Amino acid sequence: MTKEFWGKKVGMTQLFVKGKVVPVTAIDVSSWVITQIKTKERDGYSAVQIGLPRDRYVAQPFSADWLKKTKKHFVFLKEVDMAEVADIEVGKPADFYTQLAEDEYVNVTGTTKGSGFQGVIRRHDFNGPPGSHGDTMGRAPGGMSFMRSRGRVIKGKKLPGHMGVEKIVMKGLSVVKIERDAHIVLVKGSVPGKSGSLVFVRKA
After folding, report:
1. Contact 91, 34 (CB under 8 A)
2. What residue ranges define each of the domains in the chain, with the CATH number in brackets?
C-alpha cells in the first residue's frame, strides 16, 4: 500500500493530551476517490491517481462519466506512489490515511500564504527605525555593495519583493489524533498554507 495521501487544511485548534495543551492542525482527508491506476507494464511506474470532486458532486455517487470531463467534475487531481495496486479499483474512496496510527510521525508539504510585495521589515524581519529619530531611519535595506557600479546586486541580498507562495515541508510532525468518522487527521504543530489549501502528507 501507500505511505502518503493528500488533504485540505482546515485550520488550527488545540487538544488536551495527558493533561497538557497541544496545538494541532486539522487536515480534511474526505471525499477523495481513485480515478486512475498506473502500472509498470503500461505507464512505466506504479501509482494511483486520486481526485477531489467539486462541491456539487461530493454527495453524488461516483460515475465513470466523470473521468471523461475531469476538469468539470474534479477540483484537484493528484498522484500517490504505490508499489502494489492489486486491491485498488477506480471509483473507490481513497482512504489511505487509515493506514496511519496515532503517535506516528509524518512530513507535511504545503504552499505558504501569499503576502504580495513586502518591505524588508516584514519579509526579512529587519528591526526598523528607533522611535525618536524619524519614521524612515532604519527601514532601508542598506547599501548595494561594490557591485552597484556594475548595475548588479549580490545574490542573496535581502531586499523588498514578493513574499509567500513558497513550497515548504514541515518534517517530523506527530499524529495526535485521527477522527475516522469525520475523516480528519490532527497533527501537532503548524502546517504551511491558509485554510482550504492543499497539503501532502507522507510518513516520516
Report:
1. yes
2. 4-62+70-115+162-203 (2.40.30.10)
Helix H, strand E, coil C: the string for 6-75 is: EEEEEEEEEEEECCEEEEEEEEECCCCEEEEEECHHHHCCCEEEEEEECHHHHCCCCCHHHHHCHHHHEE
pLDDT in tens, the chain (204 residues): 678 999 999 999 999 988 899 999 999 999 999 999 988 888 888 889 999 999 999 999 999 999 999 999 999 999 998 877 667 889 888 888 888 889 999 999 999 999 999 998 899 988 877 777 666 666 778 888 888 888 898 888 999 999 999 999 999 999 999 998 999 999 999 999 999 999 999 998
Neighbours of 200 (CB within 10 A): 17
Other CB atoms within 10 Å distance of the CB of residue 32: 25
How far from 153 is each of 17, 116, 169, CA to CA, in Å? Answer: 50, 22, 29
Q: Is 89 buried (19+), middle (13-18) or exposed (0-12) by CB count in 10 A?
A: exposed
